[in-house]
Write a sequence for this structure.
């Protein structure tokens, strides 16, 4: 009886969380997959269309354009935030009080809601000469730049905002990884006459491979489902130049009332995200052997 209580006890503690995940995560996902095989007609009954919604995925030029934008956004935003986060961690590691204060200050963009951050950047990058950034550029003889208002710079401006928002989050993970590096290896390198760059290349970077994999996987997941920052700052424009897969999905659902097609896009995105995550973890396991 006691052994049974011990086995059941942890599940009782986890039950509220598992119920929450089941109701708000698992069930909507399953229901979305189900709806992807139908032409959804509220109050008229759903019409089964088989794989027609999935066939439309491969013939929709607007979706292809959104996929390209999403891949570009994910590639540059993720690599940029990892690069910036790593060097911030290198510069701000250590237990000193002033370093902890600086780390806290640098981490502040991460705790700002994405809606607020997007509104802030929209204000800073206001395209007129009186915008905050354009005003500074004007003092050095540059600008004004259109930033979010140009098809040629809207996506780049969104990527810059994402790097600013996500790099501090990556920094915190890298700081934790740097704290776990064996200090005796640094001392051995110093005795052998290795410089700062050699210690970084041959000790720090190899030791941070597991951490880098985690940051990369999280970044890929975050990059593929980017929505709020684009929707608030550019609304997918101008002329669809910053449209992402998720903003396109939301537009199909909310504006075109094509729930089945939107569900198919969401299901395909879920499969791609899971596949990329599994490939990254598999690559990591093979690299450890």
């Amino acid at each position: 009886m006691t052994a049974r209580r011990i086995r059941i006890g942890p599940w009782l503690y986890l039950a509220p969380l598992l119920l929450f995940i089941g109701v708000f995560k698992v069930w909507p996902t399953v229901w979305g997959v189900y709806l992807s095989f139908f032409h959804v007609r509220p109050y008229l009954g759903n019409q089964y269309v088989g794989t027609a919604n999935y066939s439309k995925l491969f013939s929709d030029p607007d979706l292809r354009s959104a996929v390209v934008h999403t891949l570009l956004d994910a590639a540059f935003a993720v690599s940029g935030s990892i690069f910036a986060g790593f060097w911030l961690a290198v510069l701000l590691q250590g237990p000193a009080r002033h370093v902890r204060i600086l780390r806290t200050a640098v981490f502040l963009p991460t705790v700002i809601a994405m809606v607020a951050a997007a509104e802030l950047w929209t204000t800073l990058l206001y395209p007129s000469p009186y915008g905050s950034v354009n005003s500074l550029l004007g003092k050095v003889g540059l600008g004004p730049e259109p930033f979010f208002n140009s098809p040629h710079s809207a996506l780049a401006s969104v990527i810059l905002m994402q790097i600013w928002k996500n790099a501090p989050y990556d920094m915190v993970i890298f700081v934790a990884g740097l704290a776990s590096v064996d200090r005796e290896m640094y001392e051995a390198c110093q005795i052998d006459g290795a410089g700062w760059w050699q210690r970084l290349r041959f000790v720090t970077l190899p030791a941070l491979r597991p951490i880098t994999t985690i940051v990369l996987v999280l970044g890929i997941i975050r990059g593929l489902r980017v929505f709020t920052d684009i929707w608030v700052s550019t609304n997918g424009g101008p002329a669809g130049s910053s449209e992402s897969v998720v903003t396109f999905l939301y537009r199909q659902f909310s504006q075109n009332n094509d729930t089945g097609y939107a569900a198919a896009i969401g299901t395909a995105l879920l499969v791609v995200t899971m596949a990329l995550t599994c490939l990254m973890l598999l690559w990591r396991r093979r690299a450890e052997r």
